[in-house]
Design goal:
The structure holds three protein chains of three kinds. Helix content of chain B is about 30%, strand content about 25%. By secondary structure, chain B is of the alpha/beta class. The longest helix of chain C has about 35 residues. The chains are: A mainly alpha, B alpha/beta, C mainly alpha.
């Protein structure tokens, strides 16, 4: 197992380099960092502009892209102190990025735990009596919720609970002017965004778990378990759920992309200062020094989660051999 | 024959499907005596497996079961789950057709046997593990201690079936139901598995129900045989009589379709088994039977004694089936 | 008896052959698929709703009450009118009728969805068929590239690609400026084809091994011929499902981009569902519920109907459902 992880990690490194190089090229062509610098700083001197180009390695031509990429990469791996600064006001990149990462981790963590937890539970309960009343309600609800895009559920929840009823805050992490940490206020602000993200997760995981568990329940080994005279709960959890989780776990790893995408929308609706908001703000300004670290973190986390999914798959299913 | 250990009376199983009710088993009577090996033979779809899965309560919820099935005097049909759990694995244990899919792929073989033991015996983990290893040894698995720590996919087909057998006998059940235990295996391995099953029957004095479509298996191991067709028993005989003097045209058809030395070609039974959504009136076999007469379409033929056997063919006497053959 | 499992186990236990034999039918596969489709209640209702919507939307010049930029009443009283007689779904910030604009917007969005989905399917089928049939390097490359894109957060990938494609002169010359509807169609087709091609590739790989393809190859049919006359007809079910899913994918995608003001700017003489969804963001803040309810409702209705239709098509393509077990 360890050898597999090390080997995969060694393989991840060149993948990251190749993918981030492609992203680098796409960003340089797509956002034209020089032009957006000039837009952001219309009165910048020629020398300033040249300095910006040099620091960020914004050279022209194919060779220039390669050279510029490696210069950028060199700076990146040396740590945040060496990262080029934002085009606006030469602000450091790392503090706002770190802040947004923590905010996103909080939102994503709570939503994922709730969403996956509820989703798996609902799926399990639904599969206990396929066609029963719970199954019918759960399945239909999951189907309809799954068809609602997050920006729709977001604005609808805002309209109902924040504007019409006034029960919950409309957006943000704290009310304007709030100083310092306040758990209660923070929790209140998190309810709506968490609901939006969790709705999607519950919908997909409950359906996935249901299908997987039904598959397992019709398997011969569950019949064997029943023939042993085991209790229904032992059969359901030890032989049913345990085996049904194997394909669900792989979905978890692959799903990280979907979760991050959903967060971008949710964070922007609720003006929540997470990575998704960071990304949209950075991309609107074409802020090259801000965009690249974000995208690299996305690439790394996607690859990492795929690796985690593979490892846990092998851990859960002894038939899978890693070396 | 002493008092029956397992006795079925008019057992019926039907399935509700979107197309209608499928009558898979239509009134089966049979008795299993202690220590005997009872063969149940029939084509796929004859209801032979469904009968026993049904009495064990292992069929999906679309199955409806009626009639009576008693083990040691305890009624199983309609029994509450608590009773069924005590029966399963302790009074009656099952061996399934495909041991690869019948074992849970994610648990060690030893643990799966331990689970079976602890479901019915008050043994701690350690004692149960020791017992599991003994059982593996008993069914002829070498290095049982190491093998117990392996997963099902690390075993060969024959070895897996031995594991299933070890699991089945773990709680010293009265009756073992072997549902096509050798069908999924290679021919050479089949013989070994049959040997193990036979040894268990003889040494542990177990009643075994051997469900198979293979008359070869029946000839090898069974004491008595019940032939099933379209959800009913059509012939009941000792294994010697069945082969020497079959009394039902269906049994004769089955025997003719067996390869034999000196026989030029096999004679398969023409036609297909009947549609069990609408089982035919009268004898279910008559559409495929060369001896069928209009009388065969009237009333369900009951089993009746003819010579040493029992048959459900109304023309068995006049055709002198079972006397010559 | 037990509260277990579903129909698959029933089939298993009740001896599949017997049940399959029941399915004597004189309907052609096409008729069967048609029947399975309409058997799906959600799909049947959704089809009718979509037909009605389609008629309304295609007849927009007649069904929309006002022109796309017509104000329902003279300013300044015409802004943010609640739903009422002269404006069924209310008005927006500049006094335009939401009902009329929804019809025009859905018209545009359906066009975007269908055009983009068809483009996805054409490209995806071609690439997938070639990859599946030829295998080798091309296949590897295709799988790598699509893996990469599918693992990446969709929205990030779309935004990067939008900027990239929209900033390369010769590309925009072909697919239009990034604010045009044409560009959006191509943008989502670029993502859509990957899913389709993987699906077609999978189908091709599975079918390649089947006898009739080998037979066609044996009589000297060329690859193109095999693909067109054998593989595609067999893969048509899943391709149709992919097509419907791509339609709603592109419609939701357009709305998502519009939500971030990255969608098409079709000019003042046109609108899209996404442009109207943009309104709902401010609408929620200001409590103008009709600006949220109607555009969002329309989008969700489309999503649900198209998903149901996809579900129904999946059923129609699945001939296994007909055994009825």
């Amino acid at each position: 197992m360890l050898r597999f992880i090390v080997r995969r990690l060694l393989w991840v490194v060149p993948t990251i380099v190749v993918v981030t190089f492609m992203v680098y090229c796409a960003v340089r062509i797509g956002w034209n960092p020089v032009a957006s610098y000039e837009r952001a700083n219309p009165r910048a001197s020629k020398a300033k502009l040249q300095q910006y180009r040099d620091v960020n390695g914004l050279y022209d031509g194919l060779g220039g892209y390669v050279k510029g990429y490696f210069q950028w990469l060199g700076n990146f791996v040396q740590g945040p102190d060496h990262w080029p600064r934002s085009i606006k006001g030469r602000a450091s990149v790392w503090p706002p990025l770190r802040y947004s990462i923590f905010n996103t981790l909080r939102l994503a963590g709570i939503s994922a735990v709730l969403g996956i937890g509820i989703g798996l539970t609902v799926g399990t309960l639904a599969a206990r009596k396929p066609g029963g009343w719970f199954d019918s309600i759960a399945n239909t609800t999951a189907f309809f919720i799954g068809a609602i895009p997050p920006f729709v559920s977001g604005v609808v929840l805002q309209l109902i609970f924040a504007v019409q009823l006034g029960w919950l805050p409309f957006a943000g992490v704290y009310p304007p002017g709030q100083q310092g940490f306040d758990l209660g206020l923070m929790a209140k602000h998190l309810i709506l965004p968490v609901t939006v993200v969790a709705m999607q997760t519950i919908s997909s995981y409950s359906r996935y778990m249901r299908a997987s568990l039904l598959d397992v329940k019709s398997s011969d080994y569950v019949r064997t378990a029943r023939a042993k005279g085991l209790s229904e709960s032992t059969i359901l959890f030890k032989h049913g759920v345990r085996n049904a989780l194997i394909p669900v776990v792989t979905l978890l790893g692959i799903d990280i992309g979907g979760l991050l995408g959903g967060l971008i929308i949710t964070e922007n609706i609720f003006n929540y200062p997470g990575m998704g908001k960071y990304f949209i703000d950075a991309q609107t300004k074409g802020d090259f020094p801000l965009l690249m670290p974000y995208l690299v973190i996305i690439v790394i986390s996607v690859l990492l989660f795929n690796l985690i999914a593979d490892v846990s798959y092998a851990y859960l299913d002894p038939r899978i051999r890693l070396d | 024959m002493g008092a029956a250990l397992l006795s079925l009376r008019d057992l019926r199983v039907s399935f509700n499907t979107p197309n209608g009710v499928v009558q898979a088993v239509r009134g089966v009577d049979l008795d299993v005596a202690p220590g005997e090996m009872l063969g149940i033979v029939g084509e796929s779809g004859s209801g032979k497996s469904v009968t026993f899965l049904g009495l064990m309560g292992l069929l999906p919820s679309s199955a409806k079961i009626s009639g009576s099935a008693k083990v040691d005097g305890v009624e199983l049909v309609g029994a509450p789950n608590r009773v069924m759990r005590a029966i399963r694995g302790q009074k009656i244990a099952m061996i399934f057709q495909d041991p690869l899919s019948a074992l849970n792929p994610v648990y060690r073989v030893g643990d799966q046997i331990v689970e079976m033991i602890q479901a019915h015996q008050d043994l701690d983990d350690k004692a149960a593990a020791v017992k599991a290893v003994e059982l593996l040894d008993l069914v002829g698995i070498s290095q049982p201690k190491d093998r117990a720590r392996q997963y099902p996919h690390e075993f060969s087909g024959g070895m897996r079936q031995r594991v299933m057998i070890a699991m089945a006998i773990a709680n010293d059940p009265d009756v073992l139901i072997a549902d096509e235990p050798t069908t999924a295996l290679d021919v050479t391995v089949q013989a070994q598995i049959l040997e193990v099953i036979q040894r268990i029957q003889k040494e542990m004095h177990k009643a075994i129900v051997m469900i198979t479509h293979d008359l070869g298996v029946i000839a090898r191991v069974a004491d008595r045989v019940q032939v099933m067709y379209a959800g009913r028993i059509v012939e009941r005989a000792s294994v010697d009589n069945l082969f020497a003097a079959p009394t039902h045209p269906y049994t004769i058809g089955l025997l003719h379709s067996l390869p034999r030395v000196g026989q030029e070609r096999l004679l398969p039974i023409p036609g297909r088994p009947p549609n069990m959504l609408r089982p035919p009136e009268g004898c279910a076999f008559r559409a495929r039977c060369e001896h069928a007469v209009p009388k065969c379409a009237v009333g369900l033929p009951e089993l009746r004694r003819i010579g040493p056997s029992e048959t459900a063919c109304i023309r068995a006497d006049e055709l002198s089936l079972g006397v010559t053959a | 008896m037990t509260d277990s499992t579903d129909s698959l186990a029933a089939a298993d236990a009740a001896d599949i052959d017997a049940l399959e034999a029941l399915n004597v039918s004189i309907l052609t596969p096409k008729q069967l698929a048609w029947r399975r489709y309409w058997h799906h209640k959600g799909a049947a209702v959704s089809t009718i709703i979509m037909m009605v919507l389609l008629v309304i939307v295609l007849a927009a010049p007649w069904t929309a009450r006002y022109g796309i930029n017509a104000q329902v009443a003279p300013p300044p009283d015409n802004v943010f009118m609640e739903p009422q007689k002269i404006a069924w779904f209310g008005t927006d910030a500049i006094g335009l009728d939401i009902y009329s604009r929804l019809i025009w917007g859905v018209r545009t969005s359906l066009f975007i969805g269908v055009a983009s989905a068809m483009l996805s399917v054409v490209i995806g089928t071609a690439v997938g068929a070639v990859a599946g049939l030829r295998g080798g390097k091309f296949d590897d490359l295709m799988m790598r590239v699509t893996d990469l894109f599918l693992a990446f957060p969709f929205l990030v990938a779309v935004i990067i690609l939008r900027e990239f494609l929209g900033n390369v002169g010769w590309i925009t010359a072909v697919i239009g400026e990034k604010t045009s509807i044409k560009f959006i169609i191509f943008l989502f087709a670029f993502f859509g084809w990957m899913g389709v091609s993987r699906l077609v590739r999978g189908q091709v790989l599975a079918l390649k091994e089947r006898e009739f393809i080998e037979a066609a190859r044996a009589v000297g049919a060329s690859n193109t011929r095999i693909v067109i006359s054998h593989l595609l007809p067999n893969a048509i079910g899943p391709i149709l499902v992919a097509l419907t899913i791509s339609v709603i994918g592109a419609i939701v995608g357009e709305s998502t981009l519009s939500f971030f003001a990255l969608g098409p700017q079709p000019g003042s003489n046109s609108t899209s569902l996404g442009k109207l969804i943009e309104l709902s963001r401010e609408g929620a803040r200001q409590g103008n519920w009709w600006l949220v309810a109607f555009p969002c409702g329309a989008l969700v209705l489309l999503a649900i109907c198209i998903n149901f239709i996809g579900d129904g098509l999946r059923d129609a393509a699945d001939s296994k459902l007909d055994t009825g077990v």
